[in-house]
Amino acid sequence: MSIDVVRMRFAAVAAKVETTPGTDAIAGTPATSDWIAADCEVEFDPVTVENPELTGTLDKAPAIVGGLRPRIRLRVPLRGSGTAGTAPEWGKLLRCCTYQETITATAVGAPTAAAAGTTNTLTLATPFAATAQLYRGMPLLLTGDRTLTTGITDYTAGRVATLGETMATAGSVSTLAQIPINVLYGPTSDEAVYKTATIYFFADGLRWRFTGAVGNWSLELSTGGIGFLVFDLRAQFLDKTAIAIPTGWNTAIRPTPPRFVGGRCQLNGGLARARRLMIDAGVSVILPDNPEAAEGYDPAIPAERDSRGSIDPLMSTTTSVAIFNAFRLGTPMPLMAVVGSAAGNRFIVMAPAAKATGLRPGARDGLGQMDIGFQLDGADSDLFLAQF
How confident is the model at residue 1 (pLDDT cuts 50, 70, 90)? Predict the structure, then answer.
């Protein structure tokens, strides 16, 4: 039987970073590395012009469709490449959301004994470099007198690393530290660093092509479940063609996304028994007008970044007072979450300075909880995501 309807389960999406913004980087057939395991939604968001023509009746003349301004929404499981130091397949999309990619291909530290420490800092020794903020946002593995996976929210030229939590006991020369091989994504305002992407969307015999994709990303972590990344991109529309999905698009073997269990969730240096953590990078983009362009505008460019989020920790007699006081006084709090345990498929998300902008006491399953909304602070340093 011949089937000419489009079955949306028979769909796939590919993306590739562009060398020249707005120029198709895939150029026909996606390579194996271009495919992304994601759900894809497309909205064309056309310019519509009211038609003032009189019809001689009560009926208005239909509006006229102008230039198309596509929105592409990709939802991706928080899944690693499976190899430490190899970027995840969705990393290219983060690079199109005003984030830069930094690969640390060799672990730093043997592990190496700290020179000194407190409950929330460690003074590291050679081979750790004496370069301010070189390791900010990266994971830190502690062994020796403790076994702990944590992260670095601040790093000074004096090799003092501030941690994303308050440890039970102060670090010392018996504490061994190592930064593992990792791929770090951090914010940048340098237009020479962040990128645009070409997106191909295939659906059961059809193909849509988009170029110059730039946009925003957000992260949702649910305790007991897995994490999801959502990319909301603006792009230029090239064409829609009847063409089959190329062979080989589904041959990649991908690791299972890690569950948000047995990990870390720390707010203001203490345990946050949260059901859900939401973070939105808050990147706004504009479409520059250009009447000589195919749809009347040039590739999208970022205009502003306003990172925000929410978390819902259970109330605690140990930590809730300090969190409320930080909210009341406008004191920034470190926020850190660690997901997964296998190298190449584990992640750390780090917000060095989360300022609570709202706090609402409530109840969850008969226990007290706090619904906390926050805004992230720090110029080109407010939010980091690393695979390690």
Answer: very low
Please state, in angstroms and as integers, the Cα–Cα distance from residue 371 to each residue in 96, 123, 308, following that order.
Answer: 31, 35, 14
Sign, Cα dihedral of 96, 377, 269, 103 = positive
Q: Are 88 and 80 in contact (CB under 8 A)?
A: yes
SS3 32: helix
d(CA 223, CA 273): 9
3-state class (DSSP) for residue 336:
strand
CA-CA distance, 39 to 74, in Å (whole number)?
Answer: 6
CA-only gyration radius of the chain, Å: 24
Question: H/E element holding 109?
Answer: strand 108-113
Tokens of 309: 């989020």
Distance CA 229, CA 69 (A): 23
Q: Which residues pair with 231 in a beta bridge?
A: 74, 217
Q: Which residues of 165-200 are buried (b: 16+ CB within 10 A; e: fewer)?
A: bebeeebbeebbbbbbbbbbbbbbeeeeebbbbbbb
Distance from chain centroid for Cα 73: 14
> For residues 146 and 5, what is the distance between their CA atoms, to the nearest angstrom?
60
Say if pTM beats, i.e. exceeds, 0.90: yes
How high is the pLDDT of residue 314?
98
Per-residue pLDDT, averaged over 12-27, amounts to 95
DSSP-derived pairing of the beta strands 347-364 and 333-339: antiparallel
Q: What is the pLDDT of residues 157-198, one digit of tens each?
A: 999 999 999 999 999 999 999 999 999 999 999 999 999 999
Residues in the chain: 388
pLDDT tens-digit series, residues 211-263: 999 999 999 999 999 999 999 999 999 999 999 888 877 777 899 999 999 99
Beta carbons within 8 Å of 157's beta carbon, 6+ residues apart: 130, 131, 132
Give the confidence band of 202 by pLDDT, cuts at 50, 70, 90.
very high
Question: Which residue bears the tokens 């990709």?
Answer: 74
Instruction: Name the nearest CA neighbour of 251 among 34, 64, 66, 6.
Output: 34
